[in-house]
């Protein structure tokens, strides 16, 4: 294990400014597409657990009639885009739709379940998908609390879904959502939205996931989860470039480990580093090193390396960095409190974190 500790010591950690700049370039963007009043602001408020005032004040204009909302405000890791005016008279959304479609990785289409007039929204979506059939889409039937009769609710959902199917030429994944004002305890469908985001945008899902923080260790990690995601996002962004990841990804990961050590009050000396790497297992470290080298080589292959190879490298580096941060946080917490932690438990936490972060490619 001593050679691995030496490797850690000899890599210069990336500066916080560089890490945040790299993460900014790779912020996942979710486009909220729907008519005014469909519940877009309510969805952001429910997903982020922010107040109405915070969401209302957090919007920034990005096109003539579109706006964006960054979350968290002080260290953005997710951007919501809202194209307003769909269905309104004397408004041609073509330019705004093109701008939003070009920057977003996923589309959440919001259609109020008591509003059967969804033709213009469906046409806008069909236009986007005609240009980019690979765009990931989730249809949200909002306002499920507005119709109490189950049969009527089912008919309304089916009717709206059919409008979008006919316009786009394909069925869409659907979620029924209720976000009754002043009754957050009666929200439904939000966990299912996040489950779909795990497939569509793992980074966004990890940021928004509801955590059942039962243990002191889980509560402590919740305080720094956003920061770990920033490091992971930065690692994924820089590893998408040929050869750059060879230096940048380890530098980002070492910077993350130093940050975690400071947070938990544990120094990464030889004894601590050896204990951590030993608990993680030599096999895991060896597999990571081998895969990392293969990814860098793959990025140099013409055409393939600049598309599939680069995308895969960025995805894997995001997942491994997040998983490393999650495992290191647990290890350091137990170390700080002088509590025993089995290798099996630590490795299971790493595997689970990696699987969730890499869900879209599984």
List the helices and strands and how they pair.
Elements (H helix, E strand, L loop, with lengths): L1 H9 L5 H10 L3 E6 L5 H9 L3 H7 E3 L4 E6 L6 E6 L10 H10 L2 E7 L6 H13 L4 E7 L7 H19 L4 E4 L13 H11 L1 H7 L7 H24 L4 H21 L5 H11 L1 H17 L6 H32 L6 H15 L5
Parallel strand pairs: 1-4, 1-5, 5-6, 6-7
Antiparallel strand pairs: 2-3, 3-4
Structural description of this entry:
By secondary structure, the chain is α/β, with parallel strands linked by helices. Helix 2 packs across helix 10 (216-239). It is built from 15 helices and seven strands. 59% of the residues lie in helices and 11% in strands. Residues 1-7 and 293-311 have low confidence and may be disordered. The chain has helices spanning 2-10, 16-25, 40-48, 52-58, 94-103, 119-131, 150-168, 190-200, 202-208, 216-239, 244-264, 270-280, 282-298, 305-336, 343-357, and strands spanning 29-34, 59-61, 66-71, 78-83, 106-112, 136-142, 173-176.
Structural class: alpha/beta
Number of strands: 7
Outline the low-pLDDT stretches: 1-7, 293-311
Strand content: 5-15%
Tell me, rounded to a whole number, the average pLDDT.
Answer: 80
| Tally of helical runs | 15
Order of helices and strands: HHEHHEEEHEHEHEHHHHHHHH
| Shape, per Cα inertia axes | elongated
Helix content: 55-70%
Report on the biggest sheet: 7 strands, mixed
């Amino acid at each position: 294990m001593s050679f691995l500790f030496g490797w850690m010591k000899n890599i210069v950690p990336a500066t916080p400014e560089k890490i945040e700049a790299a993460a900014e370039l790779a912020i996942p963007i979710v486009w909220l597409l729907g008519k005014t009043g469909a519940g877009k602001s309510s969805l952001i408020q429910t997903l982020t657990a922010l107040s109405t005032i915070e969401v209302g004040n957090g919007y920034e204009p990005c096109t003539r009639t579109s706006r964006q909302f960054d979350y968290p405000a002080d260290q953005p890791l997710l951007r919501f885009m809202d194209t307003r005016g769909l269905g309104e008279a004397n408004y041609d959304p073509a330019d705004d739709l093109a701008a939003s479609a070009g920057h977003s990785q996923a589309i959440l289409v919001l259609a109020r379940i008591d509003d059967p007039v969804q033709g213009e929204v469906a046409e806008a979506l069909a236009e986007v998908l005609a240009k980019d059939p690979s765009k990931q889409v989730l249809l949200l039937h909002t306002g499920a609390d507005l119709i109490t009769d189950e049969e009527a609710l089912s008919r309304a959902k089916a009717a709206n879904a059919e409008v979008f199917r006919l316009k786009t030429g394909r069925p869409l994944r659907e979620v029924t959502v209720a976000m009754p004002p002043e009754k957050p305890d009666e929200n439904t469908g939000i966990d299912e939205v996040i489950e779909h985001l795990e497939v569509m945008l793992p980074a966004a899902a990890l940021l928004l996931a509801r955590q059942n923080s039962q243990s002191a260790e889980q509560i402590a990690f919740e305080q720094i989860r956003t920061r770990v995601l920033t490091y992971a996002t930065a690692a994924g962004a820089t590893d998408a470039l040929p050869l750059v990841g060879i230096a940048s990804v380890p530098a980002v990961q070492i910077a993350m480990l130093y940050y975690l050590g400071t947070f938990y009050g544990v120094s990464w000396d030889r004894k601590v580093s050896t204990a951590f790497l030993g608990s993680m297992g030599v096999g895991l470290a060896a597999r990571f090193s081998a895969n990392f080298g293969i990814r860098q080589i793959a990025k140099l292959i013409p055409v393939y390396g600049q598309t599939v190879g680069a995308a895969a490298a960025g995805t894997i580096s995001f997942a491994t960095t997040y998983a490393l941060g999650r495992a290191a946080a647990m290890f350091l917490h137990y170390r700080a409190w002088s509590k025993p932690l089995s290798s099996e438990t630590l490795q299971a936490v790493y595997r689970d974190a990696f699987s969730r972060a890499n869900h879209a490619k599984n």
